[in-house]
Amino acid sequence: MEETTFRHTLxxxxxxxxxxxxGHVNNTVYFSFYDLGKTEYFASVCPGVNWEKxxxxxxxxxxxxxxxxxxxxxxxxxxxxxxxxxxxFHLTQRVIDIKTxxxxxxxxxxxxLYDLExxxxxxxxxxxxxxxxxxxxxxxxxxxx
Length: 145
Hints:
By secondary structure, this protein is α+β, with helices and mostly antiparallel strands. The protein has 2 helices and 6 strands, in the order βαβββββα.
């Protein structure tokens, strides 16, 4: 399996309520970090999207918690699109310690483009595919055999 290169990094400000009584960030909070990373990624990679008509939705998500995050840690979420199909794409994200670059959690998800007016998934536009591949610096589509 190919090593993922992360070109998009977003520093995360930990909030008081992110930390539980054990002194570390609660597992459920990581998913809000990943949502922030996705939002910033697509705002910078695919500008000009009409988010009132189109959305991206998660159809599958899984996370592997590697190491605890404590309230005093400085962390960032990194985001990369790793594969693009006709109607979906794969996203890999991870939370890292900014100072040590230690990986705290790794998340993979499958996303689809969603037509908010007609309430159905829709194919990815060539503009989206081109913008993402250009940003990632590689072709992400698999050739059909």
